[in-house]
Amino acid sequence: MNSKKKNFGNVLQKRSRFSLPYYGKDLVKWYYRFVRGPTTKSKENIQYIPKRFALNILDSKKPLTIVFIGDIMELKERDLVIGNGIREFIKNADYVIGNFEGTITNEARLYMDQRHKLQIIDALTSLFQPEQFFLSMANNHSGDFGRSTFRKSIKLLEDSGFTTFGTIDRPFVDIADTIRIIAGTAWSNRPCEYIVNFFDTPRYINPDLFNILYAHWGYELYCYPNKEMVQLAKAYLDDFGAIIGHHSHAPQPVTYEKYNGINKLVGYSLGDFSYGDDYPKNNLENYRYGIILKVQVGEDVKGHMNVGEIIWEFIASHPYENDSFIVEIIDTLPILEKKD
Ligand SMILES: [Fe+2]
Questions:
Q1: C-alpha of residue 187 to centroid of ligand 1, in Å
Q2: Ligand 1 centre from 186 Cα, in Å?
Q3: What is residue 204's three-state secondary structure?
Q4: How far is the CA of 140 from the centre of ligand 1 (A)?
Q5: What's residue 281's pLDDT?
Q6: C-alpha 101 – ligand 1 centre gap (Å)
Q7: Domain range holding 114?
Q8: For 45-55, how does the pLDDT look when each residue is reduced to its tens digit (9 = 90+)?
Q9: Rounded distance from Cα 71 to ligand 1 centre (Å)
Q10: pLDDT at residue 232 tops 90
Q11: Dihedral angle of Cα 302, 307, 308, 309, to the nearest 10 degrees
């Protein structure tokens, strides 16, 4: 394994006693950002590519269209409503991939948990047909309520038609016999031996398929990846055809790296697909932003599977009628204007 792949904290076993995923300086860094809000530090490292951009020229008559969304966070006892712009963006997709952060349960709340209501299933079903909607469980909240409650939660999702992955039992999903999406997390708030460790993701690569890494990684409320994250992404592009990340609760650039004559997609973080809390009463309103990303994958002129055109938009959740939250497309990201 490339040494650059080892320099990023693995806390699936080693976790903070505060039921946070962080220790030591990562814990200090997290608390500082929680209090101060998001930072645009490291802006010089990476820039966004345009919202509509052709990474490579495809030769496929009908490439697959996959929409990726970020962290599906809970709404603090309220319902999630999907805005019409997002439905329109997603409606011509062949598949949708999202990160289901948390557990559907009525058990008593725990410190820093993510506890979803059953309504989240109706909301996601209204967004896209569950049979082609794949939900990764490889994130820092799958251990919140323990294995037994987690299993009940994924059974509720699967009984509704969704496919879950990112677990030790099902680390990846294959699409149309040509694409493999492998999920892994670098963080966990609590002990969790049943989800895929980020550092184990290369072992699930199938060299005959186009392998996409769907990674729960990075640092919270950073609007740009630091140098180590950029190095890590480059190292993993040795193995993967594309990387799409999440966990930072702030969107980070959609961009690409040139690699042996092709352009490899890197979406550093899609931020939060949904987020509901008592904002604007508290500083958690900074957590409500994300990106939706549409990716065409097909054969290029040399007959290799590759990413063609991508389209992306910023999104935000905000309070809505009947005590719910709605997620909608927005033009610009207010937190990018913030001065550190
Ligand atoms: Fe997370």
A1: 7
A2: 9
A3: helix
A4: 5
A5: 64
A6: 7
A7: 3-337
A8: 899 999 999 99
A9: 7
A10: yes
A11: -170
In terms of Cβ atoms closer than 10 Å to its own Cβ (0-12, 13-18, 19+), residue 118 is exposed
| Residue 271, Ramachandran bin (φ over 0: left; ψ between -120 and 50: alpha; else beta) | left
Residues with beta carbon < 5 A to ion ligand 1? 139-140, 247
DSSP state of 322: T
Q: Is the pLDDT of residue 17 over 80?
A: no
Say if residue 29's pLDDT is above 60: yes
Mean pLDDT of 222-227: 94
| Distance (Å, whole) CA 265 – CA 97 | 16
Contact between 275 and 287 (Cβ < 8 Å): yes
- Find the CATH number of the domain harbouring 277: 3.60.21
Overall domain count for the chain: 1
pLDDT tens for each residue of 245-304 = 999 999 999 999 999 899 999 999 999 999 998 766 667 788 999 999 999 999 998 999
Nearest to 11 by CA among 191, 269, 147, 196: 191
Q: Where are the alpha helices (DSSP H) in the chain?
A: 24-36, 84-90, 119-127, 147-159, 227-236
CA 108–ligand 1 middle distance (angstroms): 21
Residue 282 has what pLDDT? 66
> What is the whole-number distance in angstroms between the Cα of residue 143 and the centre of ligand 1?
12
Beta bridge partners of 269: 252
